[in-house]
Design a protein that fits this description.
single chain, 165 residues, binds magnesium ion, PGP_Pase
Length: 165
């Protein structure tokens, strides 16, 4: 359930540090990680971060439980592959992404804003789990409910060996 790394936002994650950990591929969540769940607007910071990651030779793949057109649009703009309908925390979407980018488990990190989908899924496959703060907190009630549960875990983070970026 626990992340290995935490960051305030995706663009705070250092490409060189990922590289030094042997990471060659990063699976990225869409909603509230790359863009707000309420919009399709990519910030300059996120675009720059994607370019930095690519420049370091790290492959990217978006894996989203979302099924809307928005995902394909964002993937096209960023020029990265996307796996939709992923049903995270199920393993299938993550495995498909690793096949697309051609990385092994120990070379793959997962970046997302939700413990019960992104982080749990990453841990089930022994991928490097990285938790970021969600971009938009005005979410549907089901997601908010999950977050209340998540915060109980977050409160215990200080007891764990978690790196902050
Ligand atoms: Mg998300």
């Amino acid at each position: 359930m626990y992340p290995k790394i935490c960051a305030a936002a995706i663009h705070e994650i250092d490409a060189l540090k990922l590289k030094s950990k042997g990471i060659k591929g990063v699976i990225v969540d869409l909603d509230n990680t790359l863009v707000s769940s309420k919009s399709e607007h990519l910030t300059e910071e996120v675009r720059d971060w994607v370019e930095r990651i690519k420049k370091e030779g790290i492959s990217l793949c978006i894996v989203s439980n979302n099924w809307q057109k928005k995902g394909k649009k964002i993937a096209k703009i960023l020029d990265v592959p996307i796996v939709m309908f992923a049903f995270k925390p199920r393993k299938r979407g993550f495995k498909t992404a690793m096949r697309i980018i051609g990385t092994k488990r120990h070379e793959t990190a997962v970046i997302g804003d939700q413990i019960f989908t992104d982080i749990l899924g990453a841990n089930r496959l022994m991928l490097l789990p990285i938790l970021v703060e969600p971009l938009n907190l005005n979410e549907p009630i089901q997601t908010r409910f999950l977050r209340v549960l998540e915060y109980r875990f977050v409160n215990r983070f200080h007891e764990k060996d978690i790196e902050w970026m």
